[in-house]
Amino acid sequence: MAASYLRRAVSTRTACFSKYYCQAGFTVTMQKTLGGERVVGAEWLAQALPGWRIKRGDAEFKFFMGPDIQIHRLRPDDPDNKLRGLSFGLRMATELWYEPTPFTMIAADVSLSSIATSNSARIAYGWRVLEEMLGGLYVGPEIQYFGSDGYRHVRFGAHITTIKTADVEWSAAGGWAKDSAGRSSPYLRLNVLKRQ
Cα 139 vs. chain centroid, distance in angstroms? Predict the structure, then answer.
């Protein structure tokens, strides 16, 4: 039986942007559908995606493509799961940042990998607040989707975006997640962006 996984408990991501998109991360996942036995999985990933940035008025578009390396460990092992062991693939990604007014933003991103057709998408809307106190940041709703062969995961939540400290930008989100096996749990996401 192929196992499916709900991302929960630990999820860390770091990213760096200039003309390259670099990402590394670690996620712990858990599920209980493999013969009634509790399965714990861990995922490590690394991506280095050169790309292009196009800025037109208040809109910014980014396009990336490059190698995708993932390591998936399952305990106990699930031989039918395509996401196990070391995998090399190609990842394509695109991002949009648009400020329709001085006090609102729309952010969206889409990513697709050749590893088990893993994919993700996110869209967020935000209102600019705390302009004088923190230099302004955006808060608002977000929806996020993750998928791969035989698995789907959706998140509904709220985000805080563009918290700036020196040359680093922070963002965070939290909300509720549900997967294709019908399980659900809270989620928390923290992103760090270093501009060069």
Answer: 18
DSSP β-bridge partners for residue 61: 54, 96
Return d(Cα 113, Cα 132) in angstroms, integer.
Answer: 41
Phi, psi of 133 (to 5 degrees): -80, -45
d(CA 33, CA 121): 26
Residue among 73, 68, 82, 79 at smallest CA distance from 150: 82
Separation of alpha carbons 52 and 95, rounded Å: 10
Classified as helix, coil or strand, 134 is helix
Please say whether the beta carbons of 157 and 124 come within 8 A.
Answer: no
Q: Using the 8-state DSSP alphabet, how is residue 150 labeled?
A: T
Beta pairing, strands 6-17 & 184-195 = parallel
Q: What is the pTM of this model?
A: 0.74
Domains of the chain and any CATH numbers? 6-195 (2.40.160)
- DSSP letter for 2, please: -
Residue 100's Cβ-count burial label (10 Å; 0-12, 13-18, 19+) is exposed
pLDDT digit string (tens) for 126-179? Answer: 999 988 877 788 999 999 998 887 778 899 999 998 866 677 878 899 999 998
